[in-house]
């Protein structure tokens, strides 16, 4: 899966990045933050990818380079500009192969506060891997992964070793091909082509990258949990309900008025060193029913999890073929997959470890995690049917929700998105703090 993430990154010339943002109402202890930075180099973030000299060879993890100095802004900014700065930092490139795979920065705020940004390549670490890395760095725990230095193999040795690895993979290729064909047939049956003579509505837009509006909504955990109890649900279900209402507010509904929610499911195990240890489930729900009961939504999610477990081997069948897939086919696959429906990404990381908020040794006043995909064009979003994703973290008694949205035909601005978020929360009688 990590290999697939890397190939997609190179094929599409873009890929998702993760960003963690901490806000301190006082200044940051720079000595503590430098210690945190050094410790991060000994976690899952402290590595890079080295390509095989074979075009179809298995790439490998190698030790990362030193991360360099923390980028500290020379001038202060008012608190109202924190998210402008965070968005600027998110656009500074990271690369899992050439580096840097991550970067750390500090923005002093007027009045003595400060904001800290950590941006990392999603190919290196998904949300769970980044959380583990941050907590390990705060606690001073080294992973001792033992990765070799980049370029430590001669070309001859690399060819011999990678040819041997490929030879060991070959016996599994026929079954992977069969599984891939079977999976394609299942997907074709689930998404039949329009009848002959039925024209699909064409959508288009400029083929230039756009900046996706993002807002941060926060609400105290006591108020959040009170609403969860009122609806006889769970935190996960209520997050999904909020996503459903936001999708409704933004017009992301199908012909029957239903919304499609997608949930990442972590498959990370103890000692897992994969960058991406994820699966995905999809459910379709009525955004009106969630206002009074979370029962149908919870049942839909439970059924989807059971189905995912039953079909996991079939879903994962194509993965052994990844080293042999040409780049241009990866781009074609993405276009084909993302044209179906108007999914709403819904990721709830839940309660964060206490150490996550103590990157300089002291407690931050606010933390939020975000997932960002730079470089997507308006034309690509038009083919996808737009974009909507929510990411939730809970720390220091606060539920923080990152929301990113692109609506085909607009309006596309942070204030317009904030209005929709306000409406979605108001549907449940809640009034969060919204920042952008």
Q: What do these coordinates show?
A:
By secondary structure, the protein is an alpha+beta fold. The chain folds into 2 domains: 2-145 and 155-169, Chloramphenicol Acetyltransferase, CATH 3.30.559; 211-435, Chloramphenicol Acetyltransferase, CATH 3.30.559.10. It contains 12 helices and 14 strands. It has helices spanning 2-12, 30-40, 82-90, 127-139, 155-169, 173-190, 221-230, 235-249, 295-316, 327-338, 378-384, 414-426, and strands at 16-24, 47-50, 60-63, 71-72, 102-108, 114-121, 214-220, 259-266, 278-285, 343-351, 366-373, 387-395, 398-406, 433-435. The longest helix has 22 residues, at 295-316. Residues 185-207 are annotated as: Disordered. Residues 192-203 have a biased composition (Basic residues). This is Diacylglycerol O-acyltransferase.
Record the SSE blueprint:
Elements (H helix, E strand, L loop, with lengths): L1 H11 L3 E9 L5 H11 L6 E4 L9 E4 L7 E2 L9 H9 L11 E7 L5 E8 L5 H13 L15 H15 L3 H18 L23 E7 H10 L4 H15 L9 E8 L11 E8 L9 H22 L10 H12 L4 E9 L14 E8 L4 H7 L2 E9 L2 E9 L7 H13 L6 E3 L1
Parallel strand pairs: 4-5, 8-10, 10-12
Antiparallel strand pairs: 1-6, 1-11, 2-3, 5-6, 7-13, 7-14, 8-9, 12-13
Helix pairs in contact: 1-10, 2-4, 8-12
């Amino acid at each position: 899966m990590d290999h697939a993430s890397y190939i997609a990154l190179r094929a599409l010339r873009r890929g998702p990045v993760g960003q963690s943002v901490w806000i301190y109402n006082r200044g940051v202890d720079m000595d503590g933050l430098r210690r945190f930075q050094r410790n991060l180099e000994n976690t899952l973030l402290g590595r890079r990818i080295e390509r095989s000299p074979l075009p179809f060879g298995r790439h490998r993890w190698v030790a990362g380079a030193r991360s360099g100095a923390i980028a500290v802004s020379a001038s202060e900014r008012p608190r109202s500009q924190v998210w402008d700065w965070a968005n600027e930092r998110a656009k500074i490139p990271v690369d899992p192969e050439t580096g840097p795979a991550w970067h750390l920065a500090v923005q002093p705020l007027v009045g003595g506060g400060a904001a800290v940004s950590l941006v990392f390549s999603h190919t290196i670490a998904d949300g769970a891997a980044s959380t583990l890395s941050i907590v390990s760095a705060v606690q001073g725990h080294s992973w001792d992964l033992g990765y070799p230095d980049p370029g430590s193999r001669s070309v001859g040795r690399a060819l011999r070793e990678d040819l041997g690895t490929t030879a060991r993979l070959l016996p599994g290729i026929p079954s992977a091909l069969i599984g891939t064909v079977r999976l394609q047939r299942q997907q074709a049956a689930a998404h039949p082509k329009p009848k002959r003579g039925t024209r699909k509505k064409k959508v288009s837009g400029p083929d230039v990258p756009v900046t996706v509006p993002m807002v941060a909504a926060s609400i105290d955990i006591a108020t959040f949990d009170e609403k969860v109890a009122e609806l006889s649900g769970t935190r996960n279900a209520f997050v999904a309900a909020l996503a459903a209402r936001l999708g409704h507010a933004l017009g992301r509904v199908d012909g029957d008025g239903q919304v499609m929610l997608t949930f990442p499911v972590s498959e990370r195990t103890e000692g897992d060193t994969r960058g991406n240890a994820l699966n995905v489930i999809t459910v379709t729900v009525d955004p009106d029913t969630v206002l009074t009961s979370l029962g149908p939504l919870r049942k839909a999610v439970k059924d989807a999890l059971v189905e995912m477990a039953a079909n996991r081997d079939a879903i994962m069948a194509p993965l052994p073929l990844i080293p042999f897939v040409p780049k241009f086919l990866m781009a074609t696959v993405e276009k084909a997959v993302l044209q179906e429906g108007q999914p709403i990404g819904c990721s709830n990381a839940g309660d964060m470890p206490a150490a996550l908020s103590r990157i300089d040794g002291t407690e931050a006043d606010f933390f939020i995690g975000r997932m960002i995909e730079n470089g997507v064009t308006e034309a690509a979003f038009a083919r996808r049917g737009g974009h909507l994703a929510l990411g939730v973290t809970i720390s220091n008694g606060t539920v923080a929700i990152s929301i990113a949205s692109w609506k085909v035909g607009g309006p596309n601005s942070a204030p317009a998105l904030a209005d929709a978020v306000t409406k979605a929360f108001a549907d449940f009688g809640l009034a969060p703090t919204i920042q952008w």
